[in-house]
Protein: Pyridoxamine 5'-phosphate oxidase family protein
Organism: Neoaquamicrobium microcysteis
Amino acid sequence: MEFITSLEGLREHYGQVHDKAVRKELRALDHHARSFIARSPFVLIGSSDKAGNADVTPKGDRPGFVAVLDDTTLAIPDRPGNNRLDTWQNVIVNPAVGLLFLIPGMNETLRVNGQGRITADQSLRDRLAVDGRSPVTVMIVEVKATYMHCAKAFMRSGLWKPETWPDRASMPTLGEILRDQLALSESADDVDRSLDDAYAKTLW
């Protein structure tokens, strides 16, 4: 198998980029981007460490959980989790991040590229609290570029069409997966019950 190893070689396989695809990239959040973020309950965060090892993590909460502080600044709260901190640790050593905001049922997405920093500022954490529970920390993202992404990926995948979804019962539970991968002595049912208990008590 031969690999493409140059930008010139890559471009030979594609046509030139469309003018509108270039011009749609903005340097600040306009009212459309603000409106999208206010309605989004889910964002994917791409990051990488100092060595270039990549990571993508999902963040989900009530719509609008990512706060727009101004035209070039976002605040992403970090709720209780497993304390791996993959993305947060990456940002400490390499602040470049890529965000992909989704709205259920909408095939278009919003992309934001920028620089992240982590803060434990109490006033901001209090502002982003849910049911009286503040996030552990907050990622501040300085927006460098933002633009709408077209619908083709979601149209091809049929992601929002229930008739295309697999039967959940045909797939293993997380408890089954963790039992097998970690060679746990507990039963899959016990692991699932433990997970359900953690979800109920530490969602926020």
Observations:
- Residues 7-156 form a domain with the Pnp Oxidase; Chain A fold (CATH 2.30.110.10).
